[in-house]
Amino acid sequence: MAKDFGRSIGRFVGLEEPRTLSTRFLQLAEVTGGRLRWNEPENEAPVRMERSNGYLICLQRRYLAEYPYWVDGKPTPAMPLNAGQFLFLDLNDEHASLTRGAVDCVSMYTSNEALQRFHEEHDLGSVGALRTARGVAFDDRVIRNLGECLVPAFERQDTASQLFADCIALALMTHLSTRYAERPAVVRPIRGGLAPWQERRSKEMLLANLNGKISLGELASACGLSRSHFAREFKATMGMPPLQWLMTQRIERAKHLLLDPFVPIDLIAEQCGFSDQSHFTRSFSKAVGVTPASWRRVRCQ
Description:
Number of helices: 11
Helix content: 40-55%
Radius of gyration: 22 Å
CATH topology of the largest domain: Jelly Rolls
Distance between the termini: 52 Å
CATH architecture of the largest domain: Sandwich
Number of domains: 3
CATH class of the largest domain: Mainly Beta
CATH superfamily of the largest domain: Jelly Rolls
Number of strands: 9
Structural class: alpha+beta
Largest sheet: 9 strands, antiparallel
Oligomer: single chain
């Protein structure tokens, strides 16, 4: 699906594609993420997005000046976009533009069929179509933050675990359904959290998959819940989402192993579910404030 999505939004017409074009794609459960970049300050890049029964968010990471824009072959006014703003498009229409200058765009696509399955799974009822707008610059902090969360994953796809992908997709689908639907869904608060057996089972499964190669759907199914209900009840019980809890456990296990000065750091990275030593060092430093080697030196003197 990622390849099909890439062909759809990466179609350059009339002229050759930008020489500096760089593309990356990720499959996130019901959502396909993409990042397109090019730097052509003196040229124009004609881009066309083919029709599809779904929705596309194009989040701009740098300023994009006003540009010629067509919907179904008809000229349509288009606003310039500041960094952090995005277009929200219904791909049942054909969108085309003549883009000038440098572009760095994070895209998130979901089909209407995937949205309907999501609504049925989470008992959200009929919410209608999503409210898009042609050529309008949207500004939404949640969308901006979700898009930025994907940026490191495009560069290092081996660091993007299945659990991470599922959490991003779930957050995006929920936000679109509660904010942009014609009849916004109402997500009812969950009280009480997980039952003791559900808490125990979910923890066991997460600890058995420290690398994150377990889906939110698998965890939810083992607890007899939908993904949305499981994610909310887990947070109510543990005080944090499953992905954050898992990262905390990985860091704590790493600390325990670091207390043995004879265990190599690259082996600790592997045993704690990190893709490599570099990934481990970045994650540990972000969580603890110092590198694993520095933390070990202080405690093993």
